[in-house]
Amino acid sequence: MTTTTFTDETRERAREIIARYPADRSRSALLPLLHLVQAEEGYVSPAGVAFCAEVLGLNKAQVGAVATFYTMYKRKPTGDFLVSVCTNTMCNVLGGQEVYDTLSEHLGVGHDETTADGTITLEHAECLAACDYGPVMTVNYDFFDGVDASTAVGVVDELRAGGRPMPTRGARLCTLKEMAVQLAGFADEREGAVADGGPGEPTLRGLRLAQEHGVSVPGFDPNTPIRSKAEADKAAAEAKAKAEAAKPAPVEASAAPVKGGDGASAPTGAAGVAGPAKPAEASGPAKPAEASGSTTRDVKAPDDKSPQVRTAETRQPDAGTAVPDAPGTKVPTDGTGTAPAAGDARSAEAAGVAANAPAGDGKPAGDEAGAQERNLTEAKAGTDADGAGPADANETGAQK
User: Edge-to-edge, what's the strand order for the sheet holding 113-114?
Assistant: First the structure.
């Protein structure tokens, strides 16, 4: 079994990808990391799965589950150009299946197969989301619209001859590895890489109808320039300062005594004498109403429980711990109006976690231990008989 040692550039890019996410959410970097390893090898190999697991602290089963779910991650070596032909309903009616069948016969390969020279991998796609351009095919996810059998053959022949035919919409063609770098979140550094291409006629149809009939968003000025971040921050600061200046002045309590009918001072609240209106609490500034018009103050949630515990208690809350005013909470009773004895949702959650340990590379969850030990013993016996030692599963295992 051979292993792949990824380049320093790939490892540096992996660290850059992981740094895009919060420290406690680094697992979210898995999708771009899979594109990154595909950019180096041309597909997501077992070594690529092990690499992603290593840098994210996951096991290979977790990485493999994601890599096998999405069709953009290829699990075997793929050609420089992935040619995808839509054979779904609309494109099929317009001739998509004929385009695919012609290419399959012309190239001598079937679905998800690569030509002998390693240039083209052919696949039929269920839908490429371009029904108004059908039948369509893509080369490394760039569109060729309104193709027929002859134009499709012309495109693949030009690719095999070393050419780069111009897509109907999109930038200049690049190889699948170069596209994977972009899908990992890095810019295309080729000169003029994004200078070509343009929208198709069906895409512009709605815009032209809106212009013809005078349809637009109320108050929208298409000539309004897009502000830079610095300009937007400055405008926000000015608006905040203006709002602060517009706040009402503080209301001060009146210190002047109230005089009776004869001009003499009368104590506030004396019989038959109206005292001054009692000021609000202290003499601080009046608090303006919220933007929504409501004067109700924000009320913090009853507690800071995790969403899992909150959901569990909402479905079947504990009599002693349920919060009566929590949304959707209703304390169950036994039919006599008496609540059951209090339980502990947190303890139940902890017990469930302890009883369901996460799967590791060595023993997937649910495997029967005896069967696994038997398989390992048989594998070791076969290895000893051949005189060859077991290969390291990955670079991480070798280091450990």
Answer: 113-114, 120-125, 81-86, 137-139, 142-144
